[in-house]
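[User]
Um, tokens okay?
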Amino acid sequence: MKNSSQESKTRQVPNLICLTGIDGSGKSTHLRRLSKWLEEKHNLKSSPLSVWEIAKNPTYHKHPFISDRNAVHKYLGMLHPTARALFIFHGLFESFDLTKDSIAPIVIADGYWYKYAFTENLQGQDLDWLLAICGRFPKPKLTILLDLDPVDAWQRKPNITP
């Protein structure tokens, strides 16, 4: 079992960029465009980081609460804030570990922990508790907030992601 200092050392990513913002602000779109631009213009490969990267791990290919997004969304809707936050952060930590296997020198996070901590706080979870857990995630070298008017965001993405 790793202790706290060992775990934080293994989770350091020297070039972590985070794109964050509300649902519909264009995080995933900008992540794809930034990744393409970095490769075409600067010959730099990047690896995406989202809570869903965990599903790419062969260990979880058949796991019903990870491989099937609809089942995950349904399950998350049944949980109270503490259990839901722990499940989501578990997925993000596992997804982050997968980026360590990539040869890409840059990791681009889609929403990162900010998205989930904010949402869980709005659902009633204590902010200090959330921040204590999220303090285990590596700090990005650069965080970009995609600040889009909520009306425009709803037009881009009319369905709510649970």
